Amino acid sequence: MAGTDDEAVAAADDALYVLTAVLLTPAQFPSALGDDYPEACAALGLPPRADGYGLVLGQDGDGARWTVVIDDVSLVAVAIASWDCGMEYELSPDERAVVTALPGWPLAVAVAAPGVPAPHDPAPESADQVPLSPPDTSTWGPAQRRLGADEIALQWAVWREQIDPGDFSSPGERAEPEQRTAEPAESVRDGVEDGPASGHQGVRRVLAEARAYVDSPPPLGRVRSSFAPGDARTLRADGPGWSIVARTDDIAFVLLDEEPGEVLPIGRGPELPGLLEALDKLAVRPL
């Protein structure tokens, strides 16, 4: 999502040319920053405020990268929705809404403000901390695994249509791997389970840890629920070394840190529907 290049907002008494903005709330936060909302906040040195934050990413007049944190979440949400619809929206938060201005960007931004120097970190004398920088996604790890799960949730129909219903017909039998291209992973292969009881050791561990969330709720944002067609919900759960993406009326996909680039679909089976329903009940949802 990106705003227009020539928008400006007053932050810390300096002009900021707004390039983009993102939400940092319990239900919607950049997955690359952490498995849950408190972890994502900690990556920016922020306390996990109940109502969340809006992050405004831009450049100052010298071209330096800054992330302005504001507490007017609804303003950022409206701006993002407008930009996503191709509409112009001048994101100009009141100075009273500014929580802090952080040097650097926590996420990669592909655009730059016109008429100023190329994006660069602020000079040390103008910042009182090490500049933020995007997580390393050049190799497989937690950040890339979570971004891969984001992509599956965003392109659910594309991923789902690649799964043949016949793949789930034999319990414990795995489908032949296929080479696929997906972002952020360079290549993705699949292995199919016929339900939660099937034989992939990593999947069994993930499902056991996800079930434990039902009895002992995890940190805020570990389980998130968002809109899906019909009466279903898109469910996202993360944990140490794993991510789950599922539709409450369909199957689930698992990604593991220990299996680079692999996406493991899980069939409905006898147990998955109940687990997804229970997780959806404790999940946080966008307002």
Automatic annotation (TrEMBL):
Ranges annotated as biased composition (Basic and acidic residues): 173-192
Region span, Disordered: 116-143, 164-200
Top-rank taxon: Bacteria
Entry protein name: Integral membrane protein
Biological source species: Streptomyces lucensis JCM 4490
